[in-house]
């Protein structure tokens, strides 16, 4: 047994303490990197997949929608799984599922096989980030968690940012199957490395599963994410049964799920985490930021391609500097958080983010490619100052026993916030574009009308996002404080098995 308390001499060198702790995190970060990278790899590759497998755009979109849906369904269950199974066993299972799914997708002879591979991939991905976060909070003392989360944030923010660009470069020269084949050896290496070197951070406990809670969670979160995603991706308007029925069923199941968790002695998702004001406030701010971020990441490429007529690869390259700046800033903001807390970083980040949104809202069709790239970079700079500090501050406000539940809640909020944000802002964009087209006078040339309508709709969407961010700014200004430890803190023991 290695006592983590014996490594304080190394604390200045690494927030993770001992070499053993650093190795645990390194192995897990590698796995999380390939899993998160895979989330955005297919964004640019859907067109060649449609041509190769002979499927429609609505069918092909399920490769992304289904992936996100599985993650939304499984993340709430991660709190139970982290308590029930060992770190090593759970991580190897997650990476094993991801690797099997990747191989199936690479060898897919048709769309059903490719879709099955993506679903299996997603089932492994859903476990990884909550597991990694819980491990960090178990190993690292509160005074150094900002630096630790900032370090792993380099990977977590950079991976999805380079996904579309990397995908565009690969698909331009090779088959879309190369996307999966290139990930496969890394995944296999991580499994082998973890099998021999990964140690358990905590013991498993005989936590009982409540089958009804699992079903209600799947129906609730899955229904809401699917319904809003369908509206956001244009698969139906707000009155279509494909949107309303999943949202209604999901909402009812979610209410039942919450009521049930409050009555169980061993809830699947312990909602007592919301008794912490710091955690609750952090969750609200993160929900707003995720709504703004996901929708902006979707709207900016649409504007570049449909209004300014750039290629998908050029649109992906415009987003790349924003991802790079997030990766660079992540460890910096982590260390600033350890020194000054989340409030100052959140306020500055929200102001910077607001500046990017103002720029987006008033873009015209004469805007340059460089300007759009710089605005997106400014927007992502604001996000980088917000995400990890606010999340870390919220989890710091919980007792250690609630870390798995807090992590699961935040992961779920990110998925729900992204789906709701995309649906809401895409609807505003579509409605605004239609209103502009209907009211455009004869002075607007017919050839210019589609692009001008899109620009008008985009302006309304970005102004709404700006309004949401203003609410988060007020919350951070008046209420966000440095979290105080509950139930003790400090490093935990690492058990070798």
Task: Explain what this protein looks like in three dimensions.
Belongs to the major facilitator superfamily. EmrB family. GO terms for molecular function: transmembrane transporter activity. The chain has 497 residues and is mostly helical. It has 2 domains: 4-209 and 268-478, Growth Hormone, Chain: A (Up-down Bundle), CATH 1.20.1250; 210-267. 75% of the residues lie in helices and 0% in strands. The protein has 18 helices and no strands. The model is unreliable at 1-13 and 487-497 (pLDDT under 50).
Kindly give the count of domains. 2
The assigned structural class equals mainly alpha
Strand content: under 5%
Which CATH architecture of the largest domain is right? Up-down Bundle
- CATH fold-type name of the largest domain: Growth Hormone, Chain: A
Q: How far is it from the N-terminal to the C-terminal residue, by CA?
A: 9 Å
**Largest sheet report:** none
